[in-house]
Design brief:
Elements: H1 2-18, H2 23-26, E1 50-51, H3 55-61, E2 66-70, E3 73-78, H4 82-91, E4 93-97, E5 102-107, H5 111-118, E6 131-137, E7 143-153, E8 156-161, H6 166-172, E9 179-182, E10 187-193, H7 197-203, E11 217-222, E12 225-230, E13 239-245, H8 249-260, E14 265-267, H9 270-279, H10 323-332, E15 336-343, E16 349-356, E17 359-370, E18 375-383, H11 384-387, E19 393-399, E20 406-411, E21 413-415
Parallel strand pairs: 1-3, 4-14
Antiparallel strand pairs: 2-3, 4-10, 5-8, 5-9, 6-7, 7-8, 10-13, 11-12, 12-13, 15-18, 15-21, 16-17, 16-19, 17-18, 19-20
Helix pairs in contact: 4-9
C-alpha cells in the first residue's frame, strides 16, 4: 500500500514538473517587517499641513467637517455654520483653538535691547505682565510681520505672530546676549470670547481678571495646570487668550467646555475669528498683505503706514530696523490708504479692483459677510491720490452663485474703522 502511495506521489510530482511553469509558481511571498510597523510621522518641517494638539478634540465637535489652512495648520473653519459660530463668539461665549499662531520665546540678559532693535514699538515700555502689538520690518522699512509681544518675566518675552521668521530673528539678535527659539510645537493657544466669558471665569474663581486692562497677563493655575492668561484677542474686553503646554491643552479644552457649557460656552471656528478681526478693522497677514520675505515677488511690500498703523512705529526711540525709511514715510505720507468698505448687496459676492474717475486706483484684499451688521465688510487699498478726488470710488464685483454669476461695478461706501468697536 505504501509502495502504491509512493508511486502515486511520484506520478503526481512528475505531472506537476512536466507542465510549463507560470509566474504564480515562481512567486515567493516576501515578509517585510516594515509592513507591520506603525507608519512614521514626517518631521514637522517636512509636513505640508500641521495639526494642533487639539485637532482631534476640535474634530469631535465639528458638525461640518470644514477645515481651512491657517499659518500651515489645519483648523476648523465652521463648527456648525458661520452664523451660529458668530453668534457664539459675539453674543454668548466661545472657545477657539489658536495654536496655529507662531510663538517665539526670547530670553537673555540683553533681550529687551535686542528686541528694541527689531521691533517698531518701544519694547522698554512694556512692563512685566503687559503686552503690545508691534511690527517688525526690514532695514528698508518693509513689513516682515506683526504680532503681540508679551513680557512674561524679566528678560523673557513671547511673540505670537504668523509666518516663520526664525532665521531673521536669530541674525537680528546675534550681537546681543539673547537667544530666540520657536516654541510653536511646545505651546498651545486658546481664545475665549463673548460677553458671558466673565461669568464663566467667575465660576472658576478667576473673577479678578475681569478688572485687568487690555493687554495685561499673568501666570495662573487653571484646573491645577499652569496657564498664561492674557486679556487680548479679537473682541477686545470680551476676550481672553490662554497659553499652555501642549500636553495640558486637551485637559484645559475639555474641562473649560464642561464648566462653561451651562453658561453657553461652545467652540467657534477660524471663519468667525477671521471675521471678528475684519470687523475690528485689523489687516490680516497673508490675506490683506504679505511679508517682505514672501516667495511671491510680485506681491509687493508694505509699510505700517500703508496699513493705517503708523501709530505702531515709534521713530523717537533709538535706532531700529527700518527707522530712517519709516520716518521718511511719516514725513511725506503713505502712498496708499487702507480703507473700510461696506456693501449692502446680499447673496454671494466677491470684490476686486477699485476705480477712481474711470482709472484703476487700488484693490480689495478681504471681503466677508457680517451677520452682526447684515452686510458685507471689506478692506481695500486705495491710492492717496484717488482718496482726494471728488468723484465716486467704484469697485469691480462678481455677484451670485458660480452657475449664475453677474459682473458689475458698484459705488463704494467708505466706512470708518473699526466697523464694530470692541
Amino acid at each position: 500500500m505504501s509502495e502504491e502511495k509512493t508511486k502515486e506521489g511520484h506520478a503526481h510530482e512528475v505531472s506537476q514538473t512536466s507542465r510549463p511553469s507560470t509566474l504564480l509558481d515562481e512567486y515567493k511571498p516576501v515578509h517585510d517587517p516594515a509592513l507591520f510597523e506603525a507608519p512614521r510621522m514626517a518631521p514637522v518641517f517636512d509636513q505640508a499641513v500641521q495639526t494642533s494638539p487639539l485637532h482631534l478634540f476640535a474634530a469631535e465637535h465639528s458638525q461640518t467637517n470644514e477645515w481651512v489652512r491657517w499659518n500651515d495648520f489645519s483648523c476648523v473653519e465652521h463648527y456648525q455654520d458661520l452664523d451660529n459660530d458668530y453668534q457664539t463668539m459675539r453674543y454668548r461665549a466661545g472657545i477657539c483653538d489658536i495654536s496655529a499662531l507662531t510663538k517665539y520665546l526670547f530670553t537673555g540678559p540683553e533681550v529687551a535691547q535686542a528686541l528694541n532693535r527689531l521691533m517698531t514699538i518701544d519694547v522698554m515700555k512694556i512692563a512685566v505682565g503687559q503686552s503690545a502689538r508691534t511690527f517688525y520690518c526690514t532695514d528698508e522699512g518693509a513689513v516682515i510681520g506683526e504680532g503681540i509681544l508679551y513680557c512674561l518675566e524679566e528678560n523673557e518675552y513671547r511673540l505670537t505672530t504668523e509666518g516663520y521668521h526664525l532665521d531673521w530673528f536669530v541674525d537680528g539678535i546675534e550681537l546681543f546676549q539673547a537667544v530666540v527659539e520657536d516654541t510653536t510645537q511646545q505651546v498651545a493657544g486658546l481664545l475665549l470670547a463673548g460677553p458671558s466669558i466673565g461669568e464663566i471665569l467667575k465660576t472658576m474663581g478667576l473673577g479678578d481678571v475681569l478688572s485687568w486692562p487690555k493687554g495685561q497677563g499673568a501666570w495662573i493655575k487653571m484646573f491645577h495646570e499652569p496657564v498664561y492668561l492674557t486679556r487680548t484677542g479679537s473682541l477686545g474686553a470680551d476676550s481672553f487668550e490662554l497659553w499652555v503646554d501642549v500636553e495640558d491643552a486637551p485637559l484645559i479644552w475639555t474641562r473649560l467646555l464642561k464648566t462653561g457649557s451651562p453658561l453657553g460656552l461652545a467652540p467657534f471656528g477660524e471663519g468667525a475669528r477671521r471675521l471678528a478681526r475684519l470687523e475690528a478693522g485689523h489687516p490680516s497677514f497673508a490675506i490683506d498683505y504679505v511679508g517682505a520675505f514672501a516667495p511671491d515677488e510680485g506681491a509687493g511690500t508694505v509699510t505700517p503706514f500703508d496699513l493705517g498703523l503708523g501709530k505702531l512705529v515709534d521713530d523717537e526711540k533709538p535706532t531700529f530696523a527700518g527707522k530712517a525709511p519709516l520716518k521718511a514715510v511719516r514725513q511725506r505720507g503713505a502712498s496708499v490708504a487702507l480703507i473700510g468698505i461696506e456693501v449692502l448687496e446680499h447673496g454671494p459676492l466677491s470684490l476686486s479692483t477699485l476705480h477712481a474717475n474711470g482709472k484703476r486706483a487700488g484693490w480689495v484684499s478681504s471681503c466677508l459677510w457680517s451677520p452682526g451688521l447684515n452686510r458685507y465688510l471689506a478692506l481695500g487699498h486705495l491710492s492717496m491720490a484717488a482718496l482726494g478726488t471728488d468723484g465716486d470710488i467704484e469697485v469691480d464685483a462678481v455677484l451670485g452663485e458660480k452657475w449664475a454669476q453677474t459682473s458689475k461695478r458698484l459705488i463704494v461706501k467708505i466706512a470708518q474703522k473699526p466697523f464694530i468697536s470692541n
